[in-house]
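Side project, low priority. Logging it here so it doesn't get lost.
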Amino acid sequence: MRTGIITIIVVVIVLAGYVCWHLWRIAPQGWKLALVSVFILWMASFFVGFAVNDQIPMKAATVLYEVGNTWIIAFLYLLLLFLVADIAAVCHILPKMFLKDSIAGLGTVVGIVVVILTLGGIHYHHKYREELTITTGKPLEKPMTIVLASDLHLGYHNRKAELARWVDFINAEKPDLVLFGGDVIDLSLRPVMEGNFSEEFRRVEAPMTAVLGNHEFYSNLELAEQFYKESGILLLKDSVAHFNGVDVIGRNDRTSHGRVSLDALSKGLEGFTIVLDHQPYHLEESEAAGIDFQFSGHTHRGQVWPLSWITDAMYEIAWGHHQRGYTQYYVSSGLGIWGAKIRVGTRSEYLVLHLTN
């Protein structure tokens, strides 16, 4: 894992150097040093944030997190724009002088990135309500409405006021059950504990059940479990809970080791079976075990285009409704988000599942 992280950092530095070189070339005389310096300081804020956010005042940590993580998206689109411009210049589609000492060129590139970041931020704050109805032959004590959400990533960016808005969305559905598919916490427990985020979860007007995601392991697993308990959320780790004829199987995240097999967890269950498994790998396991419905998250569907192409290639299904044999699946792109609150070509959503006979 350490080798992988070092490799990623080296690649990022090399690509950032390519962007810096282009910014130097495209900026008019007298602007070059200032522009490249701003980009480097912006990049530094991302790495510094990881090192110091839990040691500095909360407001400063929040600003540093949001500024630093926004750099990632700006960097991605600057990189793509300069790559496309270079190809266009080689193909004689774009004049080479457009990329050198050019106010028009700089204004075009910066303007496009600003528009993408602005519209992506607006789009992120719109939450999509996805609805799915499943009719089952298995006995239910009553028709059920279940709200499912994954990847809330509560922390320095998704704050308590935003969680309150999401809880209002959930309560408006008048659910019989609420299920969370992991990564409720972002990377640090400090903001959710100091901000008493659990107070908002206790406003949910239905039983709540959740599984761990990889980010709970990255933060502090013991404190994460304490937070779930304080929030009134039943945490399932390779275990089963029963609600009105619905059997909810919560799998421990694959970040852990030695998970109990799904076949063993589902043995002897007679109700409508729902599997919560944060990461949507090996979907065939639910089909083989005769599971009725699986809910997963984790992918975010890449958060921004064209990273969605990568997640679409990595997973059998990176987002949306899917069916293998009798088993139905929904992979959520997440209610919240990791990093910058920007979505391009993807969406923030929650699922309302209606179960009927």
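Brief comment: The chain is about 45% helix and 20% strand.
Revisit when time allows.
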